[in-house]
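Write out structure tokens for Protein tweety homolog.
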Amino acid sequence: MGAPPGYQPSAWVHLLHQLPRADFQLRPVPSGFAPQEQQYQQALMLVAALAGLGLGLSLIFIAVYLIRFCCCRPPEPPGAKSPPPGGGCVTWSCIAALLVGCVGIGIGFYGNSETSDGVSQLSSALLHANHTLSTIDHLVLETVEGLGRAVRTELTTLEEVLAQRTELVAAARGARRQAEAVAQQLQGLAFWQGVPLNPLQVAEEVSFVEEYRWLAYVLLLLLELLICLFTLLGLAKQSKWLVVVMTAMSLLVLVLSWGSMGLEAATAVGVSDFCSNPDTYVLNLTQEETGLSSDYGMALRGLCEDALEGLLFLLLFSLLSAGALATALCSLPRAWALFAPRNPSALYSGSHLSEPLLQPGACLPPSFLFWLPEETPLTW
């Protein structure tokens, strides 16, 4: 069995391929790539379900933490104006978690770009292979048609001319049979006929799915970036309504992060199973054809190197995002409780408004004199 030029399974492929797999009954499943088998499908679904388990545990932990914070706080002594101890640590832990989330967003953008590059390379290789196969089909068709014309016209005319010479007629008929045999063998060169997957169709479907996948991840990354920035702004401005809105949005993005983590993990495991031992039948068919072998190697490098590496970076982004958002969801309510109270009635009532702005004989600041209109009379 030959290997396509320039392709060698990476260490990540071997590592993911060696992970244990089990179906819904927790029975071991072979790690060979078999997407048509039900047990293998269940194994990939179980890998994706681990992210759902992580989401459930995160939500339970956040709920227990917030309930304990709301219901088990010690009563504050009357007249206490100083913040409770540990308030600064809570705020800074929330800020640190949001900064870690921003780092994860940068990793996510890089992983999304790498995955897109790998899938684009795969689509390009499939399109080039489809062009090669179409060219072979065209050449075979032209050759078969040329042999058919030669058998129908030239050899038939030769047999009529040499009708008096039986040995020459026999030789012409032998040439006819050989030409027909060659035409039949040429028609059998199209080994890809009858294969259910067309390279052009696969390339179009992969490009279509990748376009929407890339757009969805860009929107998710931008949404999380906006949440981190506006949350930091809310903490800096001590805006309670902004912190409340960003807390609700953080919960939504937390669910999306765990969901994307499950899809990324299942896809990475499936891709590693395929890349660890690519289809032997395809390798045996393409090892003698330089053009198809190079296209196949290019497709494998795009899928098994760039795309898989991008998936791993996206998996790291989802993990950092989930951890950062969970920490922020636990810290934001405590940071919110530390905000300075705002009493609007105190701003518009009391002794501050009862006193005149300028006492008789007071001196105006120079800046105030500068902004007074010229026609404004000054009364002292």
